[in-house]
Amino acid sequence: MCRQQGLLPHHIAQWKADFANGGHQAETTKKNPEIKTFKHEIKTLKRELNRKDRALAETAALLVLQKKVHAIWGNEEDDSQ
User: Which residues contact 8 (CB under 8 A, 6 or more apart)?
Assistant: First the structure.
């Protein structure tokens, strides 16, 4: 049942341990400035990756359209020779 929901047994064991500790470990990780820096870096990298994915998709679409135009009307460079 856990795997159907995307959970693994070690996740449940970690949650049990965190609950038994009263969640103190989770609070200390929030205060750690290194984690805050990593989260900011991850957010920045994700934003940059999304921007590059959109640019790549746009370029691919333009190439497909360019091939279709050349297939329909021919290549102007071929006609001039």
Answer: 2
Question: Rounded to whole angstroms, how far apart are CA atoms 52 and 48?
Answer: 6
Q: How would DSSP label each residue in 18-62?
A: HHHTTTHHHHHHHH-HHHHHHHHHHHHHHHHHHHHHHHHHHHHHH
pLDDT tens digits, one per residue of 33-60: 889 999 999 999 999 999 999 999 999 9
pTM listed for this prediction: 0.50
Grouping H, G, I as helix, E, B as strand and the rest as coil, residue 63 is helix
CB neighbour list of residue 18: distance below 8 Å, 6 or more residues apart: 25, 26
Measured CA to CA, the distance from residue 32 to residue 75 in angstroms comes to 61
